[in-house]
Specification:
The protein has two domains: 39 residues, no CATH class; 32 residues. 68% of the residues lie in helices and 0% in strands. The termini are far apart.
Length: 73
Amino acid sequence: MSGKRADEIGNEATLEYGRRFGALKVKGGYNIYKGASIIPTYTPGSMQSIIFMLACLLIALILFVVIIKAQRS
């Protein structure tokens, strides 16, 4: 088996395990060669991004209420 073929098999296995278990939990294959970041990236519409936006809105609302109450005092 040539080196190139072994790389292809490794990449295919990495992609398959990434689909099964999540890309951030699998190392190897293309990730090594492309220097892919292990830091999660922003994915529009994901549950994490929705929770983050709701948390930001809640904090903004709390600050708004605090500012309004401070001005009335």
